[in-house]
Amino acid sequence: MSSMRTILASLGVFGLVGMGYGMWAVISPGEERKMEILKNLPEANPVRMEETRKRNALMLQVLKDAAETNDNIARGYGGQK
Question: What is this entry's stated membrane topology (predicted)?
Answer without folding.
Answer: Single-pass membrane protein
